[in-house]
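To close the chapter, one final illustration. This time we ask the reader to focus less on the individual chains and more on the assembly as a whole: which components sit near each other, and how the overall shape emerges from the parts.
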Amino acid sequence: ILNVEQSPQSLHVQEGDSTNFTCSFPSSNFYALHWYRWETAKSPEALFVMTLNGDEKKKGRISATLNTKEGYSYLYIKGSQPEDSATYLCASYDITGTASKLTFGTGTRLQVTL
Amino acid sequence: ETGVTQTPRHLVMGMTNKKSLKCEQHLGHNAMYWYKQSAKKPLELMFVYSLEERVENNSVPSRFSPECPNSSHLFLHLHTLQPEDSALYLCASSQTTQLDEQFFGPGTRLTVL
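The assembled structure is written out below.
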């Protein structure tokens, strides 16, 4: 069974603060890590797909790093804005035999206030 | 708008009812998925279809029956559900089942009385 853990469960920051979240996953059978952003009443939206150890991805003020050997990924948000308020999900993609699937963590809920 | 639509958005049903959830993707993808989101739990994969063939059944009870008539449409047929099946059901699609990011629909909020 693949467990994907995210911390913290929730986070409340002021506008302009920078913040980061952690996603940990079993490193065996690892194939890829996905980050998704899920705003309330909307659909989850892909942020990054990461595959290589040491990989870094960036989209605007949001960036992510990946360490496949120790089984963790960090998501960073620089200068948080109220529109960044959402739940951030990570999911580990593993392949066991002929089966492949995404296993999601429970997410980090971010609230950014003025 | 992600290109994946789901209907209905909300559904209330009794335990003896039969209902169906519908998902449609307009992205030309070859893979489609059903996920379940229960309160305080992570998104849980239920079924995976690739090119209209089921490739993954994640130990889902038989009261949930998927159907994929073509690569653009996915159904989840519901029969004699239990109150604990109340959850948000999300559909997603991706280009293939290998590695690609998934595009999610808005979900169907299901309540079983």
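Chain B has a mean pLDDT of 92. DSSP finds no helices and eleven strands in chain B. With these observations in hand, you are ready for the problems at the end of the chapter.
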